[in-house]
## 1
Amino acid sequence: MKLLLYHELRHACRRITWRQRALPDFLIIGAQRAGTTSLFRALSQHPQLYPSFTKEVHYFDGGGQPGTDNYARGEAWYRSHFPLRITLGTDGKTFEASPLNLYHPQAPARLHALLPKARLIVLLREPAERALSQYFLEQRRGNEPLPLLQALQAEEQRLQNTPAFSFHHHSYKTRGHYAEQLQRYLALFPREQLLILPSERWFSQPQTVLQSACAFVGVPPFPAPPDPSNHTSQRHARTIDPAVYAYLRDYFTPHNQALLALLEEEFDW
C-alpha cells in the first residue's frame, strides 16, 4: 500500500509539470508476446534514449484492462509518463512500448492526432506461436478456464458475448490479423515511419535488430547487448496436440498471405 501511494504521489507531481515534459519520439506498438519488453529494456540502455516511467503507458489504446479509459485522461496525463524536455538535452529521445496499440482499432487515429511524426516499431511473431503464448499467459493469470483447442475455437463467440473482457484476454487469433492492423496505421503514417520486423529475427539476432532500431530512430549504434532472459522466444515446454497446430495453420494461412501482399516481404514462418 505504501509503495502504491508513493508511485501515485510521484505521478501526481509529474502531472504538475506536464507542459515541460516531452512527448515520445518513437513507440514500440506491438505485437503482444512478441518481444516488446526485451526490446524496450535493451533500447533503454542507450545513453541517448530515455524510456517512459512505465513501459506500457496504455494511453492510445485506452488501458490494459476492461473498464479503463486512460485516453479520456488527456494529454497532461500522457505527458506525465515522460521525462522533462530539459533532461533530454539536444540529442536525447524518449519512447514507450504499449503492444495493445497495434491491435486496438482506435489507437492509430488517436496516435496520429497527437504524434503524426512519431516513428513506430512493430515486432511480429509467428501468429500461431504468439497465440499459444498468450493462451498460456492468460491461463497462468487465471483468466482462461478452457482447454487450449476449445479456447481457440470459442474466441469468436466470446468476443460477441463478453467483448470487453475477451478483447483483452481471449483474443488469441484476432491479434494475429497483422495485415488488417498494419493497414490501419499505413492509412495514416508513411511507410518510412514504420519499422516492421519479425520477432524471430530479434530472438536469434538481437544485436543486429538492436542496431537497426537505433538507426531507425536516429541514434548511434551501441554495444549494450539485450538480456536474453527477457525474450519470449522459447517454444512452449509442454506438449501441444498436433491438431492445435493444424487448426492454427489453416486459420492463419489467409492472414499471412495478406501480410505478404501488404509488405511484399515474406517472413520465415
## 2
Amino acid sequence: MYSNKIESLLKRKKIGIGDNVSISRGKESYEGILMPQTDLGDPDTIIIKLGSGYNIGLDSKGIKITKNKGSTKNLGKTKNIKLKFNKKKPPISLIATGGTIASRVNYKTGGVYALEKPEEFLQNIPELENIVNITKSSKPLTKMSEDMDNTHWQSIAKAVAKELNSGAKGVIVSHGTDYLHYTAAALSFFLKNLSKPVVLVGSQRSSDRGSSDAGVNLICAAHVATSDMAEVGICMHGSSSDDYCLFNRGTKVRKMDTQRRDAFRPINDLPLAKIYPDGKIEKINSKINKRTDKKVEVDAKFEPKVALLKVYPGADPAIINWYVSKGYKGFVIEGSGLGHVPTQCRNSWTEVIKKYTKKGIPFVIAPQTLYGRINESVYTNLRLLYKEAGAISGQDMLPETAYVKLGWILGHTSDLSKVREMISTNYAGEISKRTLPGTFLY
C-alpha cells in the first residue's frame, strides 16, 4: 500500500497499477510497469517492473512520473492462452504437484501463490511446442514439498504409472524443491520395471521473475522426457547460468543450497547426463537404463513409522526410547565420519541400538558427511556398533534415500534378516560399488 502522498500523485496523473510509466529524477530515468507496494514495503517507495523482469524501488522524493501507452491489466495473473502443441512431436504427460515452479508472485504481499492450472506455467515457454506434445496435464495434489509425506509419494507414483502405461513417451513431474529429492527417491523405489523417463523438475524462483530458472529447467526436462533414458531423475540447472541442466539419478541427488539455481548436485555419483536447451544430450554416467516396452508397476507399500536421526556431540540416545514408545519400527541414523555414533561415553548410542536390535528393530547408519561411505571395521567403536550391536551399514546412500528405502522395505517385511538383505541390495542405483574420485563436489 502506497502512502497518501503517492496515491494522490498517481490519482492526479491518472495512473493505476499495471500502467506503463516513465519515472525520472535528475539524470536518472526508468521505464516499466507500476507495481503495487507490498504490505511490508516502504509506502513512500514506488515499485516498477523493468523490461528485464526485475523490480526496482524508487524513493518518491523529487521524482517525475508520466503515463506511457500500454498497460497490464490483471497484474500477476496469466492470460487465457492455449498452447498449440504439435501432434507430430512425442506425446508426454505433465503432472503438477505445486511448489515454486507452479507459483506466481502475489504483488500485494510480496509472497507467492499457487497457480490454478498446470498449463499456466507453460504459457511463458513457447519453446515447448517444438519439443513435445503435452497430451495430458493433471494436478493430483497441490502441496509445497515440505508439507508432503509418503501418502503423496504414493499418489504421484500411481499417477505416473498410469500415464506411462497409457501411451505417454515420458512423464514430467513439477514439484517443490525443498524435498524434491525425497520424492525422487520414493518414485525410484515405487516404480517397478520402469521403461520410460520420469523427470522431476522444479525451480528456485517463480516463473514470472526475471531470474526464474523455470523455463530452462522445463525445456531441458522435456528433452529428457523424450530421450531413451528409462530413469527417475531430477532435471535442474547445472550452473548458475542458463547454459545447461543436469539430469541426476533420483536416489543420488540432493538440494545443496537454499537459493542457488544450480542447487541440485549428484552425491557419490556422476550425473546421468548434461541437457542443453537446444536438445543436445551429453551422457556422462556409464550406467543408464534404456527405454523398453515393459509395463510399469507400482509397488508403493511404505511404513511411515521410520525416524531419521542425527548424532552430534553429547546427543542423548533417550530420543530412541521415545520413538520406540510411539511405535516406530525402524531408524536411519546419520553417523559421523565412517559411520560412528557415540559409543564409549556417558550417552552411548551403541548400547541403546544393541538393545533394540535384539528386539528386531533395524538401525541403518548413513554417512553424515554425505560424500563417502560407511566402513564397519576401521575403528574399535565401529566394530562394536556393527558387529556387536547389529547396526546395518547404509554404505554410500544419502541419509534421505536410506530413510525412504527403509520405509519402503518395512512396508514389505519386518523380518530383521530380510531387512538387512534388502538394505544391502541395490534396487535403483542408490548404492555404488565403489566411489569414483570425480563425484566429489561435482
